[in-house]
Each structure stands twice: as C-alpha cells, then as structure tokens.
Amino acid sequence: MLPFSRVAVIGLGLIGSSIARGVRQHMPSVRVTGYDADPAVRETAVRIDLCDDIADTAGTAVIDADLVVLCVPVGAMGAVAAEIAADLPADAILSDVGSCKESVIEAVRAALPDAVFVPAHPVAGTENSGPEAGFASLFHHRWCIITPPEGTEPLAIERVLEFWRRLGAEVETMEPAHHDRVLAVTSHLPHLIAYTIVGTASDLEEVTASEVIKYSAGGFRDFTRIAASDPTMWRDVFLANREAVLDMLQRFSEDLTALQRAIRWGKGDELFELFSRTRAVRRSIIDSGQDDARPDFGRSHD
Ligand SMILES: NC(=O)c1ccc[n+]([C@@H]2O[C@H](COP(=O)([O-])OP(=O)(O)OC[C@H]3O[C@@H](n4cnc5c(N)ncnc54)[C@H](O)[C@@H]3O)[C@@H](O)[C@H]2O)c1
Ligand SMILES: O=C(O)C(=O)C[C@]1(C(=O)O)C=C[C@@H](O)C=C1
C-alpha cells in the first residue's frame, strides 16, 4: 500500500522538483501539489508540468495533503512552517529535506509544536539548482537519513521511510545531533574546502583568471563543481550547523598543519602512508555501491 496519497512539496528547486518527478514516476496515482515563493519558479513548474497543481500560497498547497515536504533552504524552514500553520491538516505528516537537522527541528517545532514532524535528509544532490535541475532518479541507491525526534509515532516514521524507499533510496534513522556531526565532515567541510580553494586560486595575483580556466583539467576542476553549489543553500548550512562544522574544521586544520610539516621536512613516508589510507577510503565507497548519481557519471536521468 502507498504510504501517502496527496503530497505537497514546498520549494520546487533541485530537491523539491526531484521529489515531484520521483513521485510521478514511482507512485503515479499520488497527487502532487507544489508551491514556491518565487513566482518565476512557479511559472516554470507549470510550463514543465512538474506537479498536478501549483498553488499560489504555501497554505493552499498543504490544505488537503497527507504528506508535506519542506524543500527550502534550511534558514527558511521556520518561516515556511509558520506560513502553513493555519492550514496544515491535523493528521498530515510534515517532513523536510534540510542538509542539517538540529536547527531545522528547533525552527519547525517553534512554529508547529503539535505537528507530526519526521525530518529527513536525502544524501544526494548536484551543484545545480532550480526546478529544471531535478530528475526522478536522483535518490536511486542513495541514502536518505531520517532523524525523528524522541517520541515520534513509529507509524509516521515507517510511512516516511516507505516514501523514500519508493523513491529508490536506501533508508537509515539517526539522532539529529549525530547526523549533523557526520554530515559536517562528509558533506559540509568538503564544500567549505572547495569554496576556499577556488576562491584562493581566483585571488592569486601571479596566476591570471584565464590560466585558472585554461589549466583546470584535473583536481581543480572537480573542486569547481562543488564550489558552484547554491550560495543561499550553503550560507544557511554553515550558519545552521556552526558548532559541528567549526569542530571538524579545527581537526582538519591540525591535520593540514601536520601535512605541511611532513612536506617541509621531506617526510615522504608520512605522505605515502596517508595517501595510501585515503585511496582505500575511495575504494570502499566504490565497493559499497554508493557511486555517483550525477548525469555526467553515466547514469540515466528519468
Ligand atoms: N542541493 C543539494 O545537493 C541538496 C541535497 C540534499 C538536501 N538539500 C537541502 O534541500 C533543500 C533545498 O535545496 P535545493 O538544492 O533544492 O535548493 P534550490 O535552490 O534548488 O531550491 C530551493 C527553492 O526554495 C524556494 N524557496 C526559498 N524560500 C522559500 C520560502 N520561504 N517559501 C517557499 N519557497 C522558498 C526557492 O525559490 C527555490 O526555488 C535545502 O534545505 C538543502 O539544504 C540539498
Ligand atoms: O553531489 C553533490 O553535488 C553534493 O554536494 C550532494 C550533497 C553532498 O555533499 O553529498 C550536498 C548536500 C547535501 O545535503 C547532500 C548531498
């Protein structure tokens, strides 16, 4: 049996539009209503026939939904929760897709203390944003982490887990604080490093901008993909997951200083030992089947 029959998606960017497409592909009898604060996004959503209905307000989008998924930047979750407060049906399940969980839970709880809230985070994405960037297979074989606050009804959790399984994801539950620490090192810190290195290269006086573009064939090019990710989304993530990110950044800086010393003092064996360990990490990721969902890695879109 399908876990839901009327889904409202608030925020129709990369993730919201991928959910809408995924529902249409994998649960075609489910009605999808969408809403986005940006009128141009709503227009695009109508033009590309993303949902069964595009509402003019967040309230009308949720009025008869049995699942509402908030797909807006994490800094906007609290405001959107407040916007739907008067119209959210009492028996609807509320969820979200935010990249960090503790701050989102706090903001949503403050606006909707009585809602059945099952927070979720699909660990899948690309550097692109907007309604046309999404694709139905984005979540296939990728993790979706559910972080239900203590006391959440088990049936509500199970329905959200089943929703994500049907979108093709592997599911896992985790404590919100633990989620935020894990993602700080696996996702947030890598983005911070990419933003830094691309910024540093483009600031170097002795290397011209055209040289940076011309010779960005290997490592640097991979960093530029990550550093092209949405500025609003990532500003919000770093501000919302501040403590965990600062903690991981401290550890990273210490390790970087150790590497700096190894290079300065010609300690080749230390470099070799680290690079061998990191190569093994890459190989275990490939072996675990968590390969890349992005289109340029050869996986088909819809
Ligand atoms: N991009 C990724 O790789 C990725 C992966 C997993 C989770 N996430 C999370 O998903 C959420 C959405 O990210 P995205 O990549 O889809 O971003 P996006 O920029 O593609 O889309 C966000 C959409 O939300 C809309 N929006 C902003 N404020 C709003 C409001 N108050 N009311 C209604 N609509 C509003 C914007 O107009 C935009 O269309 C974020 O919380 C992000 O942390 C992103
Ligand atoms: O592949 C990418 O482009 C991503 O950045 C996806 C990515 C990640 O860091 O893994 C980004 C943010 C999310 O919250 C989840 C997934």
Automatic annotation (TrEMBL):
Source organism, top-level taxon: Bacteria
Lineage, uppermost ranks: Bacteria, Pseudomonadati, Pseudomonadota, Alphaproteobacteria, Sphingomonadales
Coiled coil (residue ranges): none
Prephenate/arogenate dehydrogenase domain span: 5-293
Gene3D superfamilies named in the record: 6-phosphogluconate dehydrogenase C-terminal like domain, NAD(P)-binding Rossmann-like Domain
EC number of the protein: 1.3.1.12
GO MF term (any one): prephenate dehydrogenase (NADP+) activity
Any single Pfam family the record assigns to this protein: PDH_N
One Gene Ontology biological process: tyrosine biosynthetic process
Glycoprotein found in the keyword field: no
Family: Belongs to the prephenate/arogenate dehydrogenase family.
Protein name in UniProt: prephenate dehydrogenase
Enzyme superclass (EC): oxidoreductase
UniProt keyword list: Amino-acid biosynthesis, Aromatic amino acid biosynthesis, NAD, Oxidoreductase, Tyrosine biosynthesis
Pathway per the UniProt entry: Amino-acid biosynthesis; L-tyrosine biosynthesis; (4-hydroxyphenyl)pyruvate from prephenate (NAD(+) route): step 1/1
Keyword Ligase in record: no
Signal sequence, renumbered to the chain: none
Catalytic activity: prephenate + NAD(+) = 3-(4-hydroxyphenyl)pyruvate + CO2 + NADH
PROSITE patterns linked: PDH_ADH
